[in-house]
Design a protein that fits this description.
2 copies of one chain form a homodimer. By secondary structure, chain A is α/β, with parallel strands linked by helices. The first copy, chain A, is built from 10 helices and 13 strands.
């Protein structure tokens, strides 16, 4: 459908990904036109199929790293906002695609910034709690500079995102782009990939299948998990808040978005067992390299500037996610059986 | 001249820069053929003019960020090494060219890595002590992860170099490139630009002109300065050392190169006054943002693996640099007078 709207057009790079697809939906609900750009490296058409007939939605399969012309010039389309959500974002995915992850974080972000600069559009960059690395401060406020190993096994992602922030800073300062950076902490919910190696899909899938839930390390490392609807709300507020509201954050508004409620990985596994009513066991395995021991957002800025706090409890979020995971597990079971001919 | 040699060919990206031009010279002295690639954004033809007639030297004006084909395929040319020294490298230059600095650090480095990977060449990346940021550990060993503000006023350089290191790590791990990373600390000597805003050229030029030497802050911040010939020796050793010698550093050899002798900026200014026999005064000005308070290399690895220690004292290095600075000051005085018609 042609992207036209009273409220303007948002180009969502990475719009077919987990977070991206929820943002596209949310923006359409708010009467924005949406151009979803994705190269489907880790994004999936199935995440946005249900949006394809909605007025104002347009999908373009394109690679952000090859061109700054994200969409063709069309005077009838007033691009008001650009959201850069494009990147492999789980350790399994960026470990498998290290070069692509570096490239989209650097080249992709600079292309998207060029585009926003040319269009005079507000630019929202999805950054990550990974820029804090293995933090020496807990919880992490936005002015904490982080503790990241530049050559570590996760550095293709962490450093690409730090670079993306530096690129935002350069375009804001030297080109006057209205940039907003969201440092996104762990998020979960429907449309996460089953095989992306993150704790919640891992636990959900294992619990549904009745297989052991694998914990890396002793399970005492803590994390905080934000339900996708809460995150989409925070991102939407950051994208659309008046520039003047952000001024008190200095020249570069960076805002943590995440759920500050901490849980140990072991306790999370037990909660998943309860929500899924599963009898699975819990198994411990060796911790991979440079895995942060703690990670918890300080969301003081989001609370003050965006009036945002996550409203969905973990138990509620896990419950809401359950139907998706059950259906995905059953779909993958069926497709495996069809492929192999096993019963 | 056609680049042919018994010992192989080294492609030096950024070869017309301060460090690059000294490396080209050193490599020719060691019987390597050299292809010097530079876009002359901050490099200068005059740095390599004296090399143009030397057998085995070839200069190509090209932009590392536009193509991974650094040099045309020529079966007679055996590219054995790639040195990536391309980047604006002083706060004045990267402040003036923030986008170009980000681009050469990210796109340029990935292009150079692609090229090295295709040629099966050893790859040396010039990184910087700036990856340590405002260090919380002094001196800085290579396994210190740094304290860098990702959106600070210097982040276009610091984060581009951290990204370059992460890119090296990714190409080493996923493509098997024989990568060596040099974290270069402050270096000085002939062919530095007078106007690059660094302490030594600033002080030298002011002292020679009889103008006040400006110190930012109270002058108690310390730095360490390595003479260019010492640095070129260290880089040459890191470039050519047998891969097996680097194995004890783990999968990614990173080596600090710098002179560990610390000096306060105030004491340095006084030394310059002595070496130049100048009567200039010393003036204090406000410190710019994110200026590190200390910076000193731990060179244990270079000493052990490369058998390298800097041999030129600061006083000796300043003396050796003096004729260059005197001649540049007089040249810029003449060219200003020619341009403005003043006496």
């Amino acid at each position: 459908m042609k992207a036209k709207s009273q409220r303007g057009t948002v180009v969502v790079a990475g719009g077919a990904g987990f977070i991206g697809s929820h943002m596209c939906e949310r923006l359409l609900d708010e009467s924005y036109a949406v151009v979803c750009v994705d190269n489907l490296l880790t994004g999936r058409r199935s995440n946005i199929d249900h949006l394809s007939n909605r007025p104002g939605f347009e999908y373009r399969q394109a690679d952000l790293t090859t061109s700054a012309d994200l969409i063709p010039d069309d005077p009838s389309m007033r691009v008001t906002h650009v959201m850069n959500l494009a990147s492999p974002a789980s350790p399994v995915h960026y470990g498998k695609h290290p070069i692509e992850t570096l490239k989209v974080g650097a080249v992709g972000t600079m292309n998207a910034l060029e585009f926003a600069s040319r269009k005079g559009a507000v630019f929202l960059q999805a950054s990550t709690s990974e820029v804090y690395g293995d933090p020496l401060v807990n919880p992490q406020p936005e002015d904490y500079w982080g503790n990241v190993n530049p050559i570590g096994p996760r550095s293709m992602y962490d450093e690409a995102k730090r670079f993306a922030e530096a690129a935002c800073a350069a375009y804001a300062r030297s080109r006057g782009v209205d940039v907003r950076i969201a440092r996104i902490f762990n998020t979960y919910g429907p449309r996460m990939q089953l095989t992306d190696g993150r704790a919640i899909p891992n636990f959900m899938v294992s619990a549904i299948r009745g297989e052991p839930l694998t914990i890396y390390g002793d399970g005492s490392q803590t994390r905080s998990f934000c339900y996708i609807d809460d995150l989409a709300e925070g991102l939407f507020r950051l994208l659309t808040v008046e520039h003047s509201m952000l001024r008190k954050l200095g020249e570069l508004p960076v805002i943590n978005l995440g759920n500050p409620e901490e849980v140990t990985i072991l306790a999370l596994a037990q909660e998943v067992l309860q929500v899924t009513a599963s009898n699975s066991e819990i198994a411990l395995k060796e911790l991979p390299g440079d895995d942060p021991k703690v990670r918890q957002p300080d969301i003081g800025r989001a609370r003050e500037i965006l009036k945002w706090v996550p409203g969905v409890s973990r138990r509620e979020g896990l419950r809401r996610s359950l139907p998706y995971f059950v259906s995905e597990v059953s779909r993958s079971w069926r497709s495996n059986n069809l492929q192999t001919g096993r019963r």
